[in-house]
């Protein structure tokens, strides 16, 4: 029997040369391909991987996902166990420090976070500058980015104390910024944090408190929200986490890096999906319209939002956990929501349909999280904002890991250039070309728009 080696032999049929590259963790180093050349002065071979569908950009010990088997684990613990036994703040500690906290560690962590929930009063002035109907995610994005101006020492990214403070402040203030953005969009007074409440309870209070002297959250709603927070805490190298890592690799401060994550999460294919699920359910309007809607999806007129996942080609384990809480929350709020009926029938019909099963399209976490928020009376625009609150701990954990990783450098992908080269410059009077600009020209002369 021939001896096996952890290497890969590559034969370049253009030259007939064979190269041997190391295989580690079922992976080859893309840079090992650079030696493959036809001529000595060639740049060397690259890999082409738009959207990084088969490229590992880092080594990470934070989150393990087996998409085929529907497994999600943080630092080795299954998401099911964490949701059953832990609080969100405990999971945030686990993500950031790598181990579950002891009792005194959790007490200190909770104390520190609880005592940094207030934001600078100037943030309120900043929010006043937004139009009354601004999307709260746009406001969150701006205020998180602005935090770097309040805590300039955070740019000492190698200073462990500054890193800790940034972690604490981001986790602590994110719910406050989110709730303030929400209250602003409704024209309601901002509610200051209540340090007597839990992390999730305090957020519910800042969102919902009206004239009562003390807001007391229903423990079932508080727990459902805390479980949602755990489910959304981290999900390895997704779009927003990759954005945090890519921006952070420039060694900018963590607030600016996390703002990049918020921006990425804003998109409808990522964090905006649960908002899109609700819009879709409203458009379907009634159970009888589901077959027509699914026909449209299969004709590629639209997507079935809340279905499919880049990584899970099986039931999203988070969807299974959250599904259990939907009925509980509906019981508490006493709501017989027609959208829930449409959602469960839609899920049933899609899972009975070959189009979806053949493509391994199953409900993802967003299919149900939107329904819980809906039942809590939270408007659609807030859904992604609520996603950003717990994902902050994941972003920070990933940012810290990246900063401590000696193999990382500033992110700088390559490209395959497809444009023209070496053209002769044409003077403006001699140029011809089709109209490229779309839409009507600006109606007012530039002078009169000054100051607008
Ligand atoms: N509805 C209808 N068809 C779909 C859907 C969907 N939701 N998702 C994928 N497909 C189809 C694709 O058209 C493709 O079909 P084809 O092979 O015949 O061309 C096939 O299924 C494979 O899909 P891909 O596009 O290769 O899947 P990809 O991994 O690129 O996309 C994504 C994953 C973006 C999540 C996609 O499934 C989608 O857009 N889903 C709806 C949006 C959504 O729910 N996003 C939330 C993701 S979870 C999160 O961010 C927390």
Shape, principal axes of CA atoms: globular
Low-confidence parts lasting 5 or more residues at pLDDT below 50?
448-452
Report the total helices. Answer: 17
- What does the largest sheet look like? 3 strands, antiparallel
Strands side by side in the biggest sheet: 3-4-5
* Series of H and E elements: EEEEEHHHHHHHHHHHHHHHHH
Report how far apart the termini are.
79 Å
The ligands bound in this entry are:
acetyl coenzyme *A
Overall structural class, as computed from helix and strand content, comes to mainly alpha
Helix content: 40-55%
Radius of gyration: 25 Å
Mean pLDDT score, rounded?
Answer: 93
In total, how many beta strands? 5
Percent in strands? under 5%
Tags for this model:
binds acetyl coenzyme *A, single chain, disordered C terminus, two-stranded antiparallel ribbon, 452 residues, globular
How do the helices and strands line up, and which of them pair or pack?
Elements: E1 7-12, E2 17-22, E3 63-66, E4 71-74, E5 77-78, H1 79-85, H2 88-97, H3 103-114, H4 122-128, H5 136-150, H6 160-186, H7 199-208, H8 219-231, H9 239-248, H10 254-265, H11 273-284, H12 290-298, H13 317-333, H14 338-351, H15 354-358, H16 365-375, H17 383-403
Antiparallel strand pairs: 1-2, 3-4, 4-5
Helix pairs in contact: 2-8, 2-17, 3-6, 4-6, 5-6, 5-10, 6-7, 6-17, 7-8, 8-13, 8-17, 9-10, 9-17, 10-17, 11-16, 13-16
The chain binds acetyl coenzyme *A.
Acetyl coenzyme *A is lined by residues 269-270, 273, 297, 303-310, 359, 361, 364-366.
């Amino acid at each position: 029997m021939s001896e096996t080696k952890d290497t890969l032999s590559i034969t370049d049929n253009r030259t007939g040369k064979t190269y041997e590259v190391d295989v580690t963790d079922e992976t080859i180093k893309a840079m090992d391909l650079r030696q493959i050349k036809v001529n000595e002065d060639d740049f060397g071979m690259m890999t082409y991987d738009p959207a990084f569908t088969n490229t590992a950009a880092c080594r990470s010990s934070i989150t393990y996902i087996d998409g085929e088997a529907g497994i999600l684990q943080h630092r080795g613990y299954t998401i099911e166990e964490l949701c059953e036994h832990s609080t969100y703040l405990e999971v945030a500690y686990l993500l950031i420090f790598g181990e579950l906290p002891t009792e005194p560690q959790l007490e200190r962590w909770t104390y520190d976070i609880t005592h940094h929930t207030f934001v600078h009063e100037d943030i309120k002035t900043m929010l006043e500058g937004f139009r009354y109907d601004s999307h709260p995610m746009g406001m969150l994005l701006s205020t998180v980015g602005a935090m770097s101006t309040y805590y300039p020492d955070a740019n000492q990214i190698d200073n462990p104390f500054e890193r800790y403070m940034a972690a604490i402040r981001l986790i602590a203030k994110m719910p406050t910024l989110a709730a303030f953005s929400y209250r602003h969009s409704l024209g309601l007074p901002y509610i200051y944090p209540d340090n007597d409440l839990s992390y999730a309870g305090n957020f519910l209070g800042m969102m919902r408190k009206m004239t009562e002297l003390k807001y007391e959250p229903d423990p079932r709603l508080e727990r459902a929200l805390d479980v949602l927070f755990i489910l959304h805490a981290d999900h390895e190298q997704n779009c927003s986490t990759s954005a945090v890592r890519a921006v952070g690799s420039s060694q900018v401060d963590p607030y600016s890096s996390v703002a990049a994550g918020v921006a990425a999460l804003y998109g409808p294919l990522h964090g905006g999906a649960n908002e899109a699920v609700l819009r879709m359910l409203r458009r379907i309007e009634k159970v009888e319209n589901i077959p027509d809607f699914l026909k449209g999806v299969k004709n590629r007129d639209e997507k079935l939002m809340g279905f499919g996942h880049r990584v899970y080609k099986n039931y999203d384990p988070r969807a299974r956990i959250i599904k259990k809480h939907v009925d509980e929350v509906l019981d508490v709020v006493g709501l017989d929501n027609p959208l829930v009926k449409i959602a469960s029938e839609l899920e049933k019909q899609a899972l009975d349909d070959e189009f979806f099963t053949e493509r391994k399209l199953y409900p993802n976490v967003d299919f149900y999280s939107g329904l819980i928020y809906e039942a809590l009376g939270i408007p659609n625009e807030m859904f992604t904002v609520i996603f950003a609150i717990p994902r902050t701990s994941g972003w920070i954990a990933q940012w810290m890991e990246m900063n401590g990783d000696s193999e990382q450098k500033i992110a700088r992908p390559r490209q395959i250039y497809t444009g023209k080269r070496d053209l002769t410059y044409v003077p403006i009077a001699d140029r011809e070309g089709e109209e490229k600009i779309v839409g009507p020209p600006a109606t007012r002369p530039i002078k009169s728009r000054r100051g607008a």
